[in-house]
Amino acid sequence: MAELVCFDPSCRERYAITDVLYNCRRCGGLLEAAYQFDHDAGRLKKLFRERRMSNDPLDASGVWRYRELFDFLDHYSCVTTLREGNTPLLEAPLAAAYGGLDRVAFKHQGFNPTGSFKDNGMTCGVAQARRLGMRRVACVSTGNTSASMAAYAAAAGLEALIFLPHGNISFGKLAQSLEYGARTFQVEANFDQILALVRTLAEKMGIYLLNSVNPFRIEGQKSIVFEMLDQRDWRAPDWIVLPGGNLGNTSAFGKALREAREIGLIGTIPRLAVIQAAGSAPFHDFIENGGEFRAVEKPETLATAIRIGDPVSWPKALYEIRASRGVVEKVSEQEIADAKAQVGRAGIGCEPASAATLAGIRKLTAKGVIARGADVVAVLTGNLLKDPDYIYRYHTGQLQAPGGAKIEPRFANRPVVVPNDADRIAELIG
Ligand SMILES: *Cc1c(COP(=O)(O)O)cnc(C)c1O
């Protein structure tokens, strides 16, 4: 039987799984779904593998295939699946060399239906919305959450309301929300201010909130770890490296790993390495300096998916960093841009926030925190085509960091203008 439980260890208040609740009524803490697991690990592994042969939509989903590990629904008729998950684990020798590793594998969440890992969580959040009989869902987003929510709400027949900071969002992501038919509001405020606004609206109008504070999205994002472990025949890596914005994914990964060990699917817990952009690194600074958690008032980075000054899930993320003996690193705009070009050159490609992973690996191997021979899985969170403007500017030497500093196009690949002349072009090709 599943319950909602306050994450705060000094509270642990319990609520029904069907309560419409985003924070603890008693202490205001974050909530999580909790289960009493009673599984045979060997039987589960066999079941998950057999489901890959099945054409049942639930089994064909790379999220719902693992449904015993987030068993919060009492029936599955309220699930809307776009066959999310099913993302590849890609060996990338060129990127490994750049990162200072013998080898690295990218778990590429950009292969999802709307191009980011938000789909893993959204299919669960929307299932819960339907189970509760909600007609409207809402989120505030730097882009990928809204693109994902818009798609799943449309597929499920729900009304989607999206709130965006005016300006500073990638065009590709906004375009997705419009195409999927979501009502889209651009607000003259930053992410954190709009989140407060939408919470008020949700309460007032009975709208179901699908931001990452929603515990069911976190449940779905656990499947990224389960699928990765399944693809490795349940051999846990030494490290899992991922970018950190609101820190929902960090929370989901840590919970997935702890539960996988509790059930006996894995024997050891990999260390988490969370990478933030230097201009939006409140979690990094908190871990490094200690003291009170302090939000960054004006978060800045071209990696808009991790441009978060006041990450809602930091208490969960802190717990998971400790539980996994993890580390938090920050990287500059130049480091992100260079790493992104390297992921591209490896034939893989990703959006800017995702590239923070490889930039972070390079820094952590240089410091000796991650050993050259370590077994590392790096999570690429979003698709290359999410932010084509960034790519064009980089390769043509026009990319500027927030504040105006030029980003050096160290690995630029400029388009060349040529005359309509076969001989001249043949000469150029050489
Ligand atoms: C949402 C998102 C992130 C940040 O994930 P959090 O869970 O907010 O830390 C990173 N990269 C991409 C592409 C995203 O869409």
List the helices and strands and how they pair.
Elements: E1 3-6, E2 14-16, E3 31-34, H1 41-51, H2 57-60, E4 89-91, H3 93-99, E5 104-108, H4 118-131, E6 136-140, H5 144-156, E7 159-165, H6 171-179, E8 183-187, H7 191-205, E9 208-209, H8 215-231, E10 239-243, H9 248-263, E11 271-277, H10 282-289, H11 314-323, E12 327-331, H12 333-345, H13 352-366, E13 376-380, H14 388-395, H15 422-429
Parallel strand pairs: 5-13, 6-7, 6-9, 7-8, 10-11, 10-13, 11-12
Antiparallel strand pairs: 1-2, 1-3, 4-5
Bound molecules: pyridoxal-5'-phosphate (PLP).
Residues 116, 118, 144, 212, 243-250, 305-306, 351, 353-354, 381-382 line the site of pyridoxal-5'-phosphate.
In short:
The chain is α/β, with parallel strands linked by helices.
Run of helices and strands: EEEHHEHEHEHEHEHEHEHEHHEHHEHH
CATH topology of the domain at 89-114 and 216-395: Rossmann fold
Q: How do the strands line up in the largest sheet?
A: 4-5-13-10-11-12
**What is the overall number of helices?**
15
What oligomeric state best describes the polypeptide chains here? single chain
- By CATH reckoning, the class of the domain at 89-114 and 216-395 would read Alpha Beta
Cα end-to-end separation: 68 Å
| Largest beta-sheet details | 6 strands, mixed
Shape: globular
Quick one: how many beta strands? 13
Average pLDDT for all residues: 96
Q: Strand pairing plus helix content: what structural class?
A: alpha/beta
Provide the helix percentage.
Answer: 25-40%
CATH second-level architecture of the domain at 89-114 and 216-395: 3-Layer(aba) Sandwich
In percent, how much strand structure appears in the residues? 5-15%
Radius of gyration: 21 Å
Instruction: Point out poorly predicted stretches.
Output: none
Ligands present: pyridoxal-5'-phosphate
